[in-house]
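Re: [help] complex structure
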Amino acid sequence: MSRIQAVKGTREFYPEEMALRNYIYEKVRAASQSFGYQEWDGPFIESIDLYAAKSGEELVRKQSFVFEDRGGDLVTLRPELTPSLARMIAAKQNELTFPLRWWSFGPFWRYEQPQKGRTREFFQWNIDMLGVDSPEADAELIAVAVTFLRSVGLDPRQATVFVNNRAFMNSQFDVLGIPREKWPDVSSLIDRRSKMEAAKWDAYALEIGLSQKQLDGLKTLLGDFDLWKKSEELVRLFTALDALGVRDYVKFDPNIMRGLLYYTGTVFEAFETSGSLRRAILGGGRYDNLLADVGGKPLPATGFAMGDVVIGIVLQENGLLPEFVPTPAPVLVTVFDKTLSMKSYALANELRRAGINTAVYPEPAKLPKQFKFADKMKMRVALVLGPDEVEKGRVVVKDLSNGSQQTVEKEATVQTVREILESKSAR
RNA sequence: GUGCCUGUAGCUCAACGGCAGAGCGCCACACUGUGGAUGUGGAUGUUGUGGGUUCGAAACCCAUCAGGCACCCCA
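Output below.
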């Protein structure tokens, strides 16, 4: 094919996909706003330098869409939102009202190898609380996440949020006598455990310089799912989760570490428990140093992000996609023939003026064809204005969900249509 | 960026060196004033793209593009 195709990894939203995107957006908004978070957004294009500071070399060097603008500056399509957030907060740190609760849903780009659940262009929900340094704030963010998961129909058996605490794990490493400079290596070791064979993982652990005794101690830690009881922070977190009514979705898991370097305390990730996709639905945690790192005054922060791609697949695989109704207009006014078409147009106008979304069949065609169209578009009501009706000043109103129809005075059309739309569909 | 697998009708797939097919969907008609059901008929196409091998390529080889799996990373 010589046709120019879409750029690799980009998304084409046909109406059906667009409906899903909007559905997710709607549920994200509802969950965010139910906890009092404000919607905001940053630029889609940023200077590469913004990310060079803190996002990690991998993200900047290999995963960003970077290009030179016409003025010769290097710019990038944003690969993440947090640096923009940090800058915008730092710029108005003295005039914003804290604690600050912000959320956002928008497009991001990463130059990655596309595969299932991973595209180069994706939408991401970001939500953060800034200015509060407490496990209860972390618990609130987890509760927002669970509120969302619940609202799209996922129950605790289908989706679980796994929680750990970076600082606490570090203190445990300390107890094992693992020196501070090895902590990042140990973190990525833990991150990788589920992906490696046990023997190879052991070998790798020794390779990065752990003693056999430290390795044994580490394995005991990672197998201890009651470990959280030793952490005052985690105990407070779970107590708050209980009060917030989301405890049944959340589990402590010492194996959750998360790759990003800037997490300082609580970290969490939500996974689909049964599905084919072993990717996180959402992930986040506490990052208390980020604002100071980009030149602002120190400010504690906690938050998480969720991509639209994985959650879309999870919903689909669990049969939780909302029914797709192609048309936003539940009413079709058929066009009988050329001479009567203006009568149909005028009737549609009346319905619209009464606040009812109405489509007219755009040309004269056989009625079966027009009814098939209405059916495929999942319309609820079809109106017929033929010679008989026009002569008597009447309109045929048909409820497509059950096939019943009635002939009414033209003046009663709006009322009759409204009654059908408000009644339950028989379909 | 690396390794492996896969690209055939709108969709799911068959044909695996010898005339490109099926099911679903689509369109038309039965039904010139009524959709979903049924029946009958019809069109599906540069076999992802470009090159090579061969008398002959959808098939074999090379390149390229896209998708999938793993690595990497992560939403």
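The first strand of chain A starts at residue 38 and ends at 39.
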